[in-house]
Write a structure and sequence with these properties.
Length: 158
C-alpha cells in the first residue's frame, strides 16, 4: 500500500456520519456504552443493522460477546455524551437511560433507539462487524449529532 494509516483515516474523515452510542448490559448489572460512528442499516426484511468493533478495543469482551444491544442515535445536544462514551464504558454516570425490551439501555433524549439481538458476527481485518436484528425501536423529530473531520455538527430536516 502506498499510504499511511493516518492518511487513510484522514480520507475517511471526509465522510459525514451520524453519532451513536451502542449500549449493552454491563457486567455489574448497570449500563455500558461505546461511541460508534460505523453504524449502518442493512436490510428491511428482516430488519438488520450493523456496526463495527475494533479487536483492540478495551471493550471488546463486553460488546463483542453481547447477545443483546441497543443503538442510540444521538441528538445534537448530546455531544458531551458522545465524547464521554468514547473514553469510558459506564453509562450509568454519563446519561439517564431506561431498559429496552431486550434489556439493553435506551438513552433518554436520543433521536432514534434500536433494540437489537445479535444476528451475526463477521471477522473483517482488525474489526468485527456486528449485525443486529432490530426487535424494537422508537424515534423523535429533533436535530441529530453528526461527525465530520473530527468535529461534531448538527443535522436536521428542513
Amino acid at each position: 500500500m502506498d499510504f499511511t494509516d493516518r492518511d487513510y483515516r484522514d480520507a475517511l474523515a471526509r465522510y459525514t456520519t451520524g453519532v451513536t452510542v451502542v449500549t449493552a448490559a454491563g457486567e455489574d448489572g448497570g449500563g455500558a456504552g461505546i461511541t460508534v460512528n460505523s453504524f449502518s442499516s442493512i436490510s428491511l426484511d428482516p430488519p438488520l443493522v450493523s456496526w463495527s468493533l475494533g479487536r483492540d478495543s478495551k471493550r471488546f469482551e463486553l460488546f463483542g460477546k453481547a447477545d443483546n444491544f441497543a443503538v442510540n442515535v444521538l441528538a445534537h445536544e448530546q455531544e458531551v455524551l458522545a465524547k464521554t462514551m468514547a473514553e469510558t464504558t459506564s453509562l450509568d454516570s454519563a446519561a439517564p437511560w431506561e431498559p429496552a425490551k431486550n434489556g439493553a439501555p435506551w438513552i433518554l433524549g436520543a433521536v432514534t433507539r434500536l433494540a437489537c439481538k445479535t444476528y451475526k458476527r463477521v471477522e473483517a481485518g482488525d474489526h468485527v462487524i456486528i449485525i443486529g436484528q432490530v426487535v424494537d425501536y422508537d424515534h423523535r423529530d429533533k436535530p441529530a449529532l453528526t461527525y465530520y473531520r473530527s468535529n461534531y455538527g448538527r443535522a436536521e430536516s428542513h
